[in-house]
Design goal:
single chain, alpha+beta, about 45% helix, NuoE_dom, NAD(P)H-dependent oxidoreductase subunit E, NADP_DH_HndA-like, 2Fe-2S
Length: about 160
């Protein structure tokens, strides 16, 4: 499902088309899209309605890791690449994710089930290495925990 113009207009009206509300506007519009992103067509529409440049829209979308300009998988896996996670076996966890998912960082699986990306620190340093799947934080990760988490997300009943 893609964002409906009627719903987008409601969001724009709610924030009175204010440039200062661009981030919450984009967050709400993104939530309307099942694939968790803001399409180029939608970015153009929002820019036109708010009377701001498309460049301004893309500056915001590409700056904030919570906003996306490309479709994401059902499970959006964000691997923390902060300094703390880097020194607590982030590379080992990344290799386990790449192996289990069959995709590289920055890719979405062909079945649109998983997207794997890096993200800056999201405040889970006490349980690093950590990742977020959609909005759920998983910490103290090991290779076996990665296998178990991915298996559960796939709906496998046997591990």
């Amino acid at each position: 499902m893609t964002a409906d113009i009627f719903d987008v207009n409601k969001i724009l009206k709610k924030y009175e088309y204010k440039d200062s509300s661009l981030i919450p506007i984009l967050q709400e519009v993104q939530k309307l899209n099942e694939e968790k992103y803001i399409s180029e067509e939608m970015a153009k529409y929002i820019a036109a309605e708010m009377k701001i440049s498309k460049t301004r829209i893309y500056e915001v979308i590409t700056f904030f890791s919570a906003l996306n300009d490309k479709p994401k998988g059902k499970y959006f896996i964000q691997l923390c690449n902060s300094t703390v996670c880097e020194i607590t076996d982030k590379d080992l966890i990344e290799n386990a994710l790449v192996s289990e998912l069959g995709i590289q960082v920055g890719e979405t699986s062909q079945d649109k089930m998983f997207t794997l990306e890096y993200t800056p620190c999201f405040g889970a340093c006490d349980v690093s290495p950590a990742m977020r799947v959609n909005k759920v934080v998983y910490g103290n990760l090991t290779e076996s925990k990665i296998k178990s988490i991915v298996s559960k997300l796939r709906g496998d009943t046997h591990e």
